[in-house]
Fold:
Amino acid sequence: MKHLIALAVKFVIITLVLLAVLTWAFDVSFMNTLMISLALTALSYAIGDLLIFLNAGKPENQSTRNTIATFTDFIMALAVILLIGWLLTGEFAALVAPALVSALVLSAGEWFFHQYVDHSVVPWYNEYKSAKG
Structure:
């Protein structure tokens, strides 16, 4: 249930940012923005939040894990917005600026979302003790 709530929160954040940047500022259609939001939410949560954030360092070193995962989320957001946007609209060069702005704004939000994941979704992860000591 915690993962579903986290996915919903992430989807709302991504959708609001992409609506503001892609749809309102750069005139990308609402449906295309929604499709990009769905794809980015699924990929970003699975890869950036669960795979990379939880495995990018020791559990007690949240800042390092967060930095690595946030950078990865930036690259992933930029790539997904450009690729899916290009596939949906047929435009590539026109999407570079909106994708860059969107990825930067989303990355700032990801820093805080990772803290939410760490404390509310997988709090047991920080209590992990290695068998080696």
User: Anything to note?
Assistant: The mean pLDDT is 89. The helical segments are 2-25, 30-55, 62-89, 96-121. DSSP finds four helices and no strands in the chain. The chain has one domain: 2-125.
